[in-house]
Amino acid sequence: MSDTIPNLGGASRIYAVFGDPVAQVQTPTLINPMFAAKGVDLYAVPFHVTRENFEAAWRVFAAMDNVAGIGVTVPHKIAAARLCDELTPAAAAVGAVNSIQRRGDGSMHGALFDGLGFVRGLAGNRGRLAGASVLLVGAGGAGRAIAHALAGEQIGRLSVIDVDDGAVEFTIGMVNRVLNEPVAQRASGGLAGIDVLINATPIGLKSTGAFPVDLDGVGPHMLVADIAALARDTELLKLARQRGAATSDGRDMLEAQIALIAGFAAGCEAGMPL
C-alpha cells in the first residue's frame, strides 16, 4: 500500500466510510489508489458505526473541517439521507444516499450513485436501453436507484417484480412521476417481449432455481445484468452467456460507481468521475 498511498499529512482530508458491519466494505481499497493516482491528498477510512451511534458519529464528522465527506453503506443509507442538508434528484427520489459531500460551510450534500453507476457500467451496452422493454427483479434500495436511472435513459417500458408489494408500488410510482407517463408497471409474466433483464437482488447467487422469472426466454437478443455477481459469475449470467445474450455484472457497476464517488468526495459536482 505504501507504493500508492503516501503517509497522511496535516493538510490531508478524510472521506469517512460508515457501515455496520464495515469489514467487508471495498470502498477504501478501491478508491484510495484513485486519489493517489490523481495527486489528491484525500484518504478513505472505514469506521464501524452502529445504528445507535449513527447520528452522534454524523454530527462529529460533519463538524470537522478536514472531513471531505462520508460514504455510507448498510444500514445507514436512509438515515443519512434524512440528515443531509441537500440531496441530488436521484437521492431525493429514492430516499437514500451512499455518498455525502461536506461543503466548505459545513453543509452536507447527499448523492446516490447506485443507479448512475449501473447505467455507466454498461459501457457500450448502455445504448440498448433506449426504447427497450426492461424487467427489473428487485425493488429494494439498489433496485429503486437503478429504476430511477433507467427513467433517464428513454426506456420504452419497465416491469418490476419484488416480494414486497409496497416496494414495487413505490418504484412504479417514482418512475412514472419522473417520466410523467405510465412507463412502469408490475411484471405480468415471463420474458416475452423483454429486451433487458436486470437482477437487483441476491437471488440466483447459487442457483437459478429460485429465480422468480421463467428463464426459458433468455436469448441472444437480450441484455442480462446481475449486480449480485462480484467475486464470481452467478448462474443467471452463466446461462445468459451460454445463450448468447450480452451481459453485465456487479463489477461493472461497482467500478463505475467508485469513480463517481471519488469525484464527489474530491469536491466535484455529483455525476463527475475523478
Protein architecture, described:
There is one protein chain. By secondary structure, the protein is α/β, with parallel strands linked by helices. 33% of the residues lie in helices and 20% in strands. The protein is built from nine helices and twelve strands. It has helices at residues 27-37, 54-62, 77-83, 89-94, 114-121, 141-151, 165-179, 235-242, 250-265, and strands at residues 13-19, 42-48, 67-72, 86-87, 99-102, 108-111, 133-137, 157-161, 184-186, 196-199, 223-226, 246-249. The strands form two sheets. The protein has a six-stranded mixed β-sheet with strand order 2-1-3-5-6-4, sandwiched between helices. Strand 5 (99-102) and strand 6 form a beta hairpin. Helix 1 (27-37) packs across helix 9 and helix 5 packs across helix 6 (141-151). The longest helix has 16 residues, at 250-265. The radius of gyration is 19 Å and the shape is globular. The mean pLDDT is 92.
Explain briefly what this protein structure is:
The chain has 274 residues and is of the alpha/beta class.
